[in-house]
Amino acid sequence: MPAVPASVTHARHALADIAIRTNAIREDMALAVSEAVGNAVVHAFRDRDRGTVRLRVTSDGARLLVIVSDNGTGMRPSLERKGLGVGMGIMRHVTDDLRLETSDSGTTVWMTFEKAA
Amino acid sequence: MKPGRLKLDAGTRATGDREVAYLAVAGEVDLSNAEELREAVDDTGGNGAGVVIDLTDVGFMDSSGLAVILQAARDRESRLVIVAAPGSAVERLLEMTEAAGRVRLMGSEQQALEALADPDAG
Predict the structure, then answer these.
(1) Inter-residue contact B99 to B66 (CB < 8 Å)
(2) Nearest residue of A to residue B63 by CA position?
(3) Is B109 exposed, middle or buried (0-12, 13-18, 19+ CB in 10 A)?
(4) Which domains are present in chain A?
(5) What residues of chain B score a pLDDT lower than 70?
(6) What pLDDT is attached to residue B17?
(7) From the candidates B1, B6, B28, B30, which should be mutated to test the interface with A, based on the most A CB atoms within 10 A?
(8) A32: how many CB neighbours lie within 10 A of its CB?
């Protein structure tokens, strides 16, 4: 999906079709995806207008893994574009595990959700 | 309501012998429409008796909406009251980010209006 603000909404609603046992996890996933895609849109494409954000969801039965990746120029906080810290804090709070890799060729965020009932 | 659509209803409410600005927000707040919310909040003014932003019907809000609320709270200090239903997604976001201590948060319209009725309160 294109790295534009409307993709934040689309990504979040794309997860609505995924069967999840509890509303709490559904809310957590919605919030985490909104923050991750929002961070990509705001922070990952500082040097160009266009970019792509990918959303993937996999499950091993016990856990859901949500992966948000972009082909931007890396995610670094900047004085001009605030908010990265708040979004990361929210993602840490609502996920069971959070990993992030960022480089000059893009950023990938792995977010794990335990599917406990 | 379509995803990404916000319903914004601005008006006034009487409380005590004062009239306060009242902004009712419904829908989902994220990066796609946070600026729309910011403009609506700015349009409520803020130099008068007070402003209530009612988020009772906001089913989802992320940090982009939170930033709008916190900026409004900084600008208006105790003259701004936020309404969010107990246990709602908005209240949960405020709690998890420790923002609840930086805004006057009430659980209902009535409580919000009572909070602004006394000019010496807050």
Answers:
(1) yes
(2) A87
(3) middle
(4) 6-114 (3.30.565.10)
(5) 1-4, 46-47, 119-122
(6) 87
(7) B30
(8) 26
Alpha carbon A44 to its chain's center? 12
Q: Check CB contact of B67 with chain A, cutoff 8 Å.
A: yes
Annotation: CATH topology of B6-117: Transcription Regulator spoIIAA (3.30.750)
Structure tokens at B57: 């019907």
The domain segmentation of chain B, as residue ranges, is: 6-117
Average pLDDT for runs of 10 along chain A of length 117? 92 74 78 95 82 91 90 73 76 95 93 77
Residue B75 corresponds to which amino acid? D
Chain A residue at shortest CA distance from B27: A9
**Residues 6 or more apart in contact with residue B70 via CB below 8 angstroms:** B99, B102, B103
What is the predicted ipTM?
A: 0.89
DSSP category for residue A2: B
